Amino acid sequence: MKIRLRSQTGMEPIFQRLLARFKKYFLVLIATPLILGALGWFLPIGKQGPAQPAETTISLGSYENPDLNEPKRVRVLLTNILFYQEHLPELWKEKGEELLADLNVQPVTDEIIELSFKNNGTEESVRTVNEITEAFLELDQERFQQKKDVIQKSIQAIEPEKVAPEAKVDQQRFLYELNTAELNLKPASLLQGADFQMDESGALNSKSRAILGVLIGITIAFFGIAIPEFVRERP
Question: pTM for this structure?
Answer without folding.
Answer: 0.63
